[in-house]
Each structure stands twice: as C-alpha cells, then as structure tokens.
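Chapter summary example.
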Amino acid sequence: MNPNYEVLFEPVQIGPVTAPTRFYQVPHASGMTEANPRVRAAFRGTKAEGGWGVVSTGAVSTHPSSDDSPLPFARLWDDNDIASHAMACDAIHEHGSLAAVELWHGGAAVMNRSSRIAPYSPSGIPWAATHVGFMGQLRPRIMDKKDIRAVIDWQAAAARRARSAGFDIVYIYAGMGYLGYEFLLDDYNHRTDAYGGSVENRVRFVRELIETTKEAVGQDCGVALRICLEELRAKPSEHFASQAHEVVNLLSDLPDLWDVKMDSSPPDCGASRFRPEGAHEPVIDFVRQVTDKPVVGVGRFTSPDTMVSQIRRGILDLIGAARPSIADPFLPNKIREGREDEIRECIGCNICISSWHDGVPVRCTQNATIGEEWRRGWHPERVSPAASEDSVLVVGGGPAGLEAALIAARRGYQVTLAEKAAEFGGRLCYETSLPGLATWARVRDYRLYALQQMGNVSLYCNSELSVEEVLALGHQRVAVATGARWTRALYSSLEIPKGELNEPGVYTPDDLAAGCMPQGPVLVYDFDNYYLGGAIAESLASRGLDVSYATPAGHASAWTIMTNEQPFVHQALHKHGVGITTQVLLQTFDGESAGLANIFTGERQDVAVQSVVIVGLRLPSDDLYQQLLKQEVNWATAGIKSVERVGDALAAGAIVHAVYSGHDWAKGLDEAGDRVFLRDVPIALHPPGPAIL
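The structure predicted for these 693 residues follows.
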C-alpha cells in the first residue's frame, strides 16, 4: 500500500460500533426490494468483500404512508420484512463490514399509489421536485400532533426491526424533500406550534426522531442522521453563518454520525458532464468543524489522493460513495493492495440512477456484473476459466469489443482484437471530445490498459478485416463488434422512419466524428433524445456557430431526466445561446431553411439554416457479419465454431448496453444452449396478516 493512503484504512468509531475502514458505501437506491432478497444480499455482500467498511441499504420505508410505488423501494413495515434484510446483513457481516439501514419516511414527496394513504406533510404543501412527472394528484395532509407522534413511533418500530435483522447503523433521513427535511425548511413548514417558526422549533421533529431511534436500538447500533444542507446553507440565520450552521449546532453531537449531502438528486448525484469530483465540498465543508461526531459525505470520489485530501483537510471522516462503489465494488481493496491502476473508475454517466427510475436492479456502464452477482453468478473480479483451448477473434475495438476481449482473455482464451481505426474506443473517440464527456474515456482506458498487461492478447489498430482474412486467421470463436452507424432518417409522429434526408448540408454524428464541420446557422435535430444531441449543439455553439435545437420531445435531451442531467442540459444550451424548439418533426431541408411541423397540429414553421445535423436512428454496421454468414459452409474448414454479433453491431443502444453485450458473450463462450438467470422469490416467515395503517 502507498503509505499516503494508510489513513483511509483507519477504523472510525460510530457510537457503539466501529467501522473497520473509512470507506463507507452510503445509502443509495438499488432497485432491489423484498421481492429480490438474494439479488440484494449478493449485491451488498460483494461490496463488503471488496473492502467497503460500511455497506448501506437504500431508502427503507417505515410505514405504508411512505409508499413510493411504482418506483422500487424497500420496507420494514412488519416482521415479515426482517428476514430479507437479515440475509443482506449476513452477507455484509461475512466480510467484516458494518451494515447500515436508511429508514425513511417520504412525507409529501411520495405518491402512495399502492397504499392510497394521503401523504403526510408539516403544512400541506406538495413536494414535486423529487419525482417530477411521476407525482399523482392527491395532495398531502397537514399533520397534527397525533400524526407526528405516529411517525416517530413508526420510526422506533422500524429501528427495532432493523436491529433484529442485524443492522449495525440505523438512519434518520432528513433530506431530499422527504419528511424530516420538510420540517427543517421554512418553505414547507409554515406551522405555528412547537414544530414550526424558529429554526429551533423546526428542528424539533428531527431531534425527536433521533432520540426515539437511539432509545429503540440502545447500545446495539450506531445512529446516523442523513441531512441535506444546500438550501439551508443559502438561508440566513440571526446568530449563525446560515441556517445550515444553526441546524448542525442545535443537533451537534446527538447523532453518532452525520451523513451530509445536497438537496435534490440532480446536484447531489450530478452527472460528470456537469458536476466534477468533490462538488459537494462548498456546501458541506463546515460540518466537521461544528460537531465532534464523525462526518461522511460523497463527491463521486475515485482518486485516492482526493480521498486523503478530504480527510487531511478536515472535510470528512469517512469517504462516502454510491456510484464509485457500483462501478468498482473492489475499489478499497485495490487501494489497499497498491493496485490503484486497476480501479474501474465511475464515469458519472448516471445509468445507475436511470435504473431506479426504470424500476429495475441497478445497472452500470463500467461494471456489467452489477446486479447479476446472484442471478448470473457474475463477480466483478473473478471469472470462470476457459473450458477449451479455442482462440478468440474480436473484430472492433469499441466498448463492446474491448469488454468482450478483456473478459475472454481473463478467462484464459488467446485473444486477438482488431480495430479498423487508428485508435481503440469506437464511438468514444469522438464523444469524449464533446463538452463534459471526457470522463467517459475511462470505459476505453480501463479496458485497454488491462488488455495491454496481458500476455495472451494481441492488439491491432488500422486493421480492417475482410471475410477472407477472418477465415484465414483460423480463430475458433469470432465476435463481430463493428458498431452502428447514424442515419439521416426522418420520422412520422408515430416514430416510424419515413425515408432519409440526403441533401447537401445534412450531417450525422458520424460525419462530425470524421471531421466535417457544418456551416452556420445550423439546426441540430434530436430524435435520439439522450445526451448526444444536446452535447453536439453545445459543442458547435462553443465554436462560434449560430445553433438552434429541435426535437419531437417536450424537452431538450428528454431522456436525460432519467440520469439527472436535464436541468443542466437546458442551462448549458441557454448559456450558449442555443434556441430550443420542442414537439416538432423535421420534414424538409433545401439548403436555406429547415421545415418543422408540430407533432400534434401539423402547423408548419421554417427555420433559416445552412446545415442540419440529424441525431436520430442508428442501425448496426454488420456488413462483415452478414458476409460471414454467407460463407458459413466454409467455417468448419477454417476452424471457426461460432460467429456472433455483440454490442451495437447486434442492436444499437447506449454504451451500457454495448459493454453488457460484450461481457455476456465472453462469459457464455463455452455455455451450451440458452443463457439463463436465476429467478428470485420473496421470503415470508409469517402468513399474511392485517396491514398496519
């Protein structure tokens, strides 16, 4: 171990329990509920195996009045919920780590669509910021003192169940628009009783939650307070630097641990495109100076030097991580063992967050194994050895090809990777040059570095292989990872392609990647609706071009609401003077103007532009594969046993899909028949009984 990093492996006392290291996997959503107890246990247990000293759950509801359906969330509503959590605790404890549970009441920021209970709130004010687009029409009730007492009692009951399940640290959640936070913030707390008005009164509810939790768990568990400070720090206080300072002073040493963060998901879990590593520090930097209790915070930390700096400068006592622990569950162990170069660094794409919005177990661009530890038996660091001496040829060195080659090589296969371009990376070579996307190069760099260290790998750039050359090379297993191409297709309002716009002055991202530069004014027409259209518009505008942006969707880069980017996309385009037109279809372009039509009314508008960039439909570039199929009768003679497409050559998608496809192919090289996964089932120790309402 680098001696500079030894401080990261010091134990930290958290009330009656001790974290073995400063590496702390903070609470984060996983998309794994009591319906997937084995999936969840393996997911959390793998992080403990990788050296995280504390491994936490995501939000665990204390009562049916905190019901986030249809979004996936965990529960501790009754004793039937204990067993599945105990399974996760056992998996974490097996590796000597502490298990933490984030008990949660969402207040007005939940929909309660399943329970149909009117949401609770201090003053009846709706909270829409957390689930914009998902909120229902039922407005929250104003809590009376009986309701307040009930919520506190539910917290205590859930805390006792958490202790029974084996958790070592029990949370009170006062952030992200949830109930505790609503009491703290005067925008949502207009009460005139003992729970409203002054900061001292507004903090009373959180104080009582902490006190009742400590009483419920006794000396068996540490008690943590998770609190958002961004908005509170922006509010003045009569006697302190801000209301955030006042709140921390008032509670000071009451919790055993302070978990400090930003107010809403976009800035708190900001994509790397808009939020650098350590972006939380200007908001949370004061807490350690106000309390004697340990402080944990996050910042998408992947650099051990940055982590050490946070400790040495007195910002944090524990290095919190969610996304970095997903990208590389073994990050702590790699630092401990002096293998920093092998860290699979988070790229900050926030696909993991989109998984929760999708209601599925967490997914990761960098780590294809995440969420598949139990279902597929996949491990982030270990692979099964090759079952044959077959050699492998991977054609195409983009994300899918690099992952396929790496996993096949780790299994022991002799691997040849051939890329037609002058450098590896595929689509990443261009996309990482766009504003804010440089961090995504880690997808290429991590895999390429690993491949370069291996003796059973041959790497070739500037090597576009023909069918005859593939046959002549004599490899038994061939993966065609030749990517996809952007088209100039136009669409109907039903999203059906309606021919291509092949006029002069019409470009695709592939043209821009090849060095073509449109003449301004230029229209970026975005039918893809993920990051690329907005990033291209921003890039062209930053070069001085007059740029406008149009899309059939209701927002620019509409799908980025799933990845916490959408507010920042709009801010970036506004900053660069890019005009945004939504809910339109591109229909014509004659070199002087583009014809747009409203998707609902058909109303036509013409935009004076000299160039159009269409970011729309991608189709597989699978010509080599199709040609090889025509030569299938010659495969056996050439020694070829199988030829398969992977990544975009099979089905165009995001980079996460390409990496998964390459990984899945390499893992299945010697599997016969269909590749299957295990199906999880809930655990119930007691028969169904009356609901607690």
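To summarize the output: Residues 145-165 form the longest helix (21 residues).
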